[in-house]
Amino acid sequence: RCFHFCKLPGRVMGIRLLRFTSVVIIVLLLVAGALTALLPTIKDDKLPNLRREPKTQSQSALDSFTLIMQTYNRTDLLLKLLNHYQAIPHLHKVIVVWNNIGEKTPEEMWNSLGPHPVPVVFKVQTVNRMRNRLQNFPDLETKAVLMMDDDTLVSAHDLAFAFSVWQQFPEHIVGFVPRKHISTPSGVYSYGSFELQNPGFGNGDQYSMVLIGAAFFHSGYLEDFQQQPEAVYALIDETQNCDDIAMNFLVAKHTGKPSGVFVKPVDMRNLEKDTNSGYSGMWHRAEHLLQRSYCVNKLVNIYDGMPLKYSNIMISQFGFPNYANHKNKM
Amino acid sequence: RCFHFCKLPGRVMGIRLLRFTSVVIIVLLLVAGALTALLPTIKDDKLPNLRREPKTQSQSALDSFTLIMQTYNRTDLLLKLLNHYQAIPHLHKVIVVWNNIGEKTPEEMWNSLGPHPVPVVFKVQTVNRMRNRLQNFPDLETKAVLMMDDDTLVSAHDLAFAFSVWQQFPEHIVGFVPRKHISTPSGVYSYGSFELQNPGFGNGDQYSMVLIGAAFFHSGYLEDFQQQPEAVYALIDETQNCDDIAMNFLVAKHTGKPSGVFVKPVDMRNLEKDTNSGYSGMWHRAEHLLQRSYCVNKLVNIYDGMPLKYSNIMISQFGFPNYANHKNKM
């Protein structure tokens, strides 16, 4: 018996109305269902105007790195290099340290030529200082920093490999340019490369620094750099040089081990000659190398000791570019 | 007053006797003293028949290594190689694992051609087993083992460098012969070298094993090897092969990292062809490589998983033999 239903006003009319309503509803549902089946299936390639979420932004802070590139008077090289570096695997963001005081950054032009694979931030500086690139930038979100000079092109293959090496040696400066200091009987140190005599630990050469103008290192070292004695900043400002030597001292002191791990580059190029600016870089100054020896000795005074340690480990990528590059004479 | 003395029989004669005795004694002492002054000063080079205390025996257990070399049917090569290896820097002792069952060791001849830079111990075996070299020899005093096949010559320079690398990576097998496994869609693994396809992690090749026939590793792993499942020993005995693959599995499981670190040799030679015995080594057997693939899969079953990990790190010595061997294109 239908007690509830049947209590509708107008018992006979109620039932008929109910049946009619039910039928209408069912018919409407069927029609709607049929219409749904006719809708086109939504596929990714049918949404061309929506930007794909950039993969790099979902990379964790451990699996990606931030490129910090300081630039002075070589904007043409900077832009060439940015086109190259913006597409390096595992790159999270680029920070351009703009040392062209009073000059507009190319940010407008950069934006007009978007979209770009990663964000690029232009940090306008107030004074043209070599150590501007060693600030503890709030924009830094990754554990790893890749620091490049604005005239140096390193291939993506080299960078991808060196980044993987850094991940295995995160407390070291992992890079492509090895240098060394040597001590002399007088106790005065000298700075140089392979043209200097070997430090004399067995055969072969040794390096005690890896320059930061083409290297990966832990972003924590930028924090540490802010805690150094004033004399270090004064030295770097006085010479407009040696920030990289100071960083190697810092890292060596921190780890008690050789500061750097040298990765032999397959394809690294200096683009200095390619600039229209006529500006060819600090290392061409006559006093450049003498300054660096001077810096080594000053830093030993400031830190009251020589923390740099030697290494002769040279790392290359197994089976690249030549798949039999490890073959021996056997 | 002289009470005790004077109680000697014959009082007057006693005193005269005493004085005379004293004078004689004093004169004798003076003469002896004079004779001592005339003795020649003892210098090292005046004692040609006394062996200098070998420097290696005063080396601490951390700064030296023990060479373990197993030998079968190639005593001529063994003796050639012993002459070379006995003089390697930082070598503490040599252990020769004598697999020539029932045959006398060359110990007598060895001793007759002494002195030698380091002690050499001949361990006579009762059964000719490949895994004899993986015993936990009580003669082992060093933390590091250098294991060499009895047909492999590696230069002193390479060994000295690789030993210094091992000291920086003591939990790894640091050696000169990289190999890899690859997995296939069927889940079956295959063993090989660079002729096999890359495992597909980025560009270049990868290795997942470093063979122990030319490598440094921690002596603790010989202890660990004694604790492995019986099935591992059975596998090695069945194939007379794969002890090195088993060691790589052991090390990878222990560290959770790639088992080996590959050091690219400058001068490594296979002396197989130089033997008079006509015996040319196990790896020439037709089934050798197939056995090794078989072993990889068996070990995965035994250990219930694949512990081997890939690496593409290739280490060379900075500035050796060519002092500019790190130069880049800049």
UniProtKB/TrEMBL annotation, chains A, B:
Any Gene Ontology CC annotation: endoplasmic reticulum membrane
Catalysed conversion reaction: 3-O-(beta-D-GlcA-(1->3)-beta-D-Gal-(1->3)-beta-D-Gal-(1->4)-beta-D-Xyl)-L-seryl-[protein] + UDP-N-acetyl-alpha-D-glucosamine = 3-O-(alpha-D-GlcNAc-(1->4)-beta-D-GlcA-(1->3)-beta-D-Gal-(1->3)-beta-D-Gal-(1->4)-beta-D-Xyl)-L-seryl-[protein] + UDP + H(+)
Enzyme Commission designation: 2.4.1.223
Top enzyme class: transferase
Gene Ontology molecular function, alphabetical: alpha-1,4-N-acetylgalactosaminyltransferase activity; glucuronyl-galactosyl-proteoglycan 4-alpha-N-acetylglucosaminyltransferase activity; metal ion binding
Superkingdom to which the source organism belongs: Eukaryota
Family: Belongs to the glycosyltransferase 47 family.
Protein name: Exostosin-like 2
Source organism: Chloropsis cyanopogon
